[in-house]
Amino acid sequence: MGRGMACSLARRGVQLKVFDVRPEACEEVVKLGATRAANPRECAEGVSVLIVAVLNAQQVSSVLFDGPDAALANFQGVCVVCATVAPGFIEDIAAKASGLGTTVVDAPMSGGTVRAGKGDLTFMVSACAPAMEKCRSVLEAMGKVFLVGEKPGLGSSMKMVNQVLAGVHIAVAAEAMALAAKMGFDTRQVYDIITTCGGNSFMFENRVPHMLDDDPTPHSALDIWPKDLGIVLDECRRLGFPCPMAGQALQQFLAGKAMGLGSKDDSFVVKVYEALAGVTTAACEGHVVKRQRTNESAPVLHKEDCLRVGFLGLGAMGRGMACSLARRGVQLKVFDVRPEACEEVVKLGATRAASPRECAEGVSVLIVAVLNAQQVSSVLFDGPDAALANFQGVCVVCATVAPGFIEDIAAKASGLGTTVVDAPMSGGTVRAGKGDLTFMVSACAPAMEKCRSVLEAMGKVFLVGEKPGLGSSMKMVNQVLAGVHIAVAAEAMALAAKAGLDTRQVYDIITTAAGNSFMFENRVPHMLDDDPTPHSALDIWPKDLGIVLDECKRLGFPCPMAGQALQQFLAGKAMGLGSKDDSFVVKVYEALAGMRVKSA
């Protein structure tokens, strides 16, 4: 990180002196015009701002204070500490430096090596006004600057929140990719799918390519995480705050360290799962995954050349999907057990059916977007008004269900003359309404041909195979990521509140930092607004993560991150929050730690 930061400053014309215990580390920035100092003291001589970007607290203390060549031996200016250290450590060295005439600025950063070289890091700064005035332009030359307060330690507290998220995101990325390999997927294509889904995160996008390439080059060493998450858990113990997601991630990194992987890239935590489950994640080619045309190039489906489509289930996701189809000119019949749920799409030209059977009559493609397996089975098969009572066409099941369940209903439907397409989706209610979902589809070629244009009218389509259940298996991988990301978003935001940070500012900072994810960006605003409206109900996660853990038990695959997230959602359900928005899992932490995340 430090090399990229220094190069970024040099490219911007900053008069720069640099020091590293490895002289060769200075070569690149010296070529850009910097001067190489012989020791920390010489590096600090004649400068007004001194930046310290070493690895840990011991190195910070050594370079600043130890011996006659220490940086602060004869320095009276602003010392900007960018290392990830404990808040209490920063308080202590700030007091010690003050006695020597130096003002310490607490400014840990986030963003990774690539963004460091581009001058696009995020700095979480606590500093008094005079010190901030002196170093602001230097920090801004290296990235975005967020001032979180004046007291030393607040910047490091903010970095702790980011590290909770980032560390958990790396660990669960490893868990999800190893699970995908265990299920026989082409892992490179899994990466392509997830980066369009609700399971995406900065760390998934950044670290999984290293897993796929089996690249041990330590862009960020695995050893960093026992240190950083150790800081988190020590501080949480001091605060009396539970941090189960971060604690579980720490165990995975410690396992990697025990395997001798500490000096490798932190993405090599995937080797823990590979060793336990007997799989290889690196560029594992399995089921052929084909990306179909996106909805951006999909034509409007005019009534004269469009298939007739039936749509069962107009809940939070289904309503947006149906409206998206109606806006694209699809001839649509809809049914929901709540008649009022049909009103919006009927206004767009759809016809409301009185029963599932009526909804299926005269259509070529029937879409099922209900909540769970019981509802799928009921709406398709139960009683004289069942959808498949007199339907012979293509039935597209978009619900999140177990792979084995889809196999079973596909066989049962086949006996009735219906072909089932397994097509779970991801993306959330907003993207559903925009026709920008991601569909993970398994279907035989004739069925895919019949329903392709309909699916493309609602989003991006990935064909993951022909066998029923493969689409649902792919959705499981996404749900491991998405569920863990929601749970750790709650944990991180509650920790921020406990540490006395402005939670709305925390949101603004994290969305620019390495701790960001689709779910953090989407769910945390609901936490900040204390909004229980169930855009996606908490009850969904005991179901979805239950499916994951049942399937992992069958496969003999360990899923500790998903298992820990499930416990947080079950705690929320036990508190009576099952019908609330899934972001209300934050109430579990609020109840335990006695604080509120809601922004003032």
From TrEMBL:
Q: Where is the 6-phosphogluconate dehydrogenase NADP-binding domain?
A: 1-147, 308-463
Domain of life of the source: Eukaryota
- InterPro entries found in the cross-reference section: 3-OH-isobutyrate_DH-rel_CS, 6-PGluconate_DH-like_C_sf, 6PGD_dom2, 6PGDH_NADP-bd, HIBADH-like_NADP-bd, NAD(P)-bd_dom_sf
* One family name in Pfam for this protein: NAD_binding_11
Q: Which residues form the 3-hydroxyisobutyrate dehydrogenase-like NAD-binding domain?
A: 153-273, 469-589
Molecular function GO terms recorded: NAD binding; NADP binding; oxidoreductase activity
Q: Which PANTHER family match?
A: 3-HYDROXYISOBUTYRATE DEHYDROGENASE-LIKE 1, MITOCHONDRIAL-RELATED, L-THREONATE DEHYDROGENASE
This one is known as 3-hydroxyisobutyrate dehydrogenase
Q: Which organism is it from?
A: Polarella glacialis (Dinoflagellate)
